[in-house]
Amino acid sequence: MIENVVEYFKNLPPKQCANCGEKVEEQHECYGSQCESCSDL
Predict the structure, then answer these.
(1) Which of 11, 15, 16, 21 has CA 20 to 30 A from 39's CA?
(2) Ramachandran angles phi, psi of 23, nearest 5°
(3) Which residues pair with 16 in a beta bridge?
(4) Mean local confidence (pLDDT), 37-41
(5) pLDDT band at 19 (very low <50, low <70, confident <90, very high)
(6) Distance between CA atoms of 34 and 36, rounded to whole angstroms?
(7) pTM of the predicted model, to two decimals?
(8) 3-class secondary structure, 23
């Protein structure tokens, strides 16, 4: 069982953009899957 939920979320790998593969500058648990550049297209 996960003892500390905060530690779980801190240890998640950075999200990557679904289009270009760049690191998404957002919280890991958010639902977005695109970086700012691709979402502006």
Answers:
(1) 11
(2) -65, 130
(3) 23
(4) 79
(5) very high
(6) 7
(7) 0.56
(8) strand
